[in-house]
Amino acid sequence: MKKKIINIGVLGAGKHANKNTIPAILELKKKFRLLAIHKRNIKKDKKIFQKFKCKLFDNLDKILELKNLDAVYISSPPRFHFSMAKKALLLNKHVIIEKPAVINFNQAKILKKIANKNKVIIMEAFMYKFHNQF
């Protein structure tokens, strides 16, 4: 049985995503295909993101409507995590969110309920498991 490659989009791509997250996704080419990048002002950094050879969006709804998008990695500021994750989960997309995933327990309960109902995964990314600081 051939393993499926997951088509993933990065939402809220900033400096961290450009430097770390997107290159990590590209390295995992046997598991992930970077399908699209979302940034609120894509025109500002269009040349930076064109090197990744994927679709670029400044409209969250448009990227989430892509038929072959399986999952999203949310790399936006924490105040946007809940609304972006909720939209993605309601459209049956798997969601990975940079920490902190949400800003309160009620948001976590809501997202968990939607994920369970739609049979998709939601998880928090924890980048520095072995960082010297810890």
Compile the SSE list and pairings:
Layout: E1 6-11, H1 15-27, E2 32-38, H2 46-50, E3 55-57, H3 60-64, E4 71-74, H4 78-90, E5 94-98, H5 105-118, E6 122-125
Parallel strand pairs: 1-2, 1-4, 2-3, 4-5, 5-6
Helix pairs in contact: 4-5
Short description:
This protein is an alpha/beta fold and 134 residues long.
Structural account:
This protein has 134 residues and is α/β, with parallel strands linked by helices. It has helices spanning 15-27, 46-50, 60-64, 78-90, 105-118; strands at residues 6-11, 32-38, 55-57, 71-74, 94-98, 122-125. A six-stranded parallel beta sheet has the order 3-2-1-4-5-6, with helices on both faces. α4 (78-90) runs parallel beside α5 (105-118). The radius of gyration is 14 Å and the shape is globular.
Question: Biggest sheet, in brief?
Answer: 6 strands, parallel
Mean pLDDT: 90
SSE pattern? EHEHEHEHEHE
Helix content: 25-40%
| Coarse structural class | alpha/beta
Report how far apart the termini are. Answer: 41 Å
Helix tally equals: 5
Please identify the oligomeric state.
single chain
Shape by Cα distribution: globular
Strand content: 15-25%
pLDDT below 50 for ≥5 consecutive residues: which ranges?
Answer: none
Rounded to the nearest angstrom, the radius of gyration is 14 Å
Number of beta-strand segments: 6
The side-by-side strand order for the widest beta sheet comes to 3-2-1-4-5-6
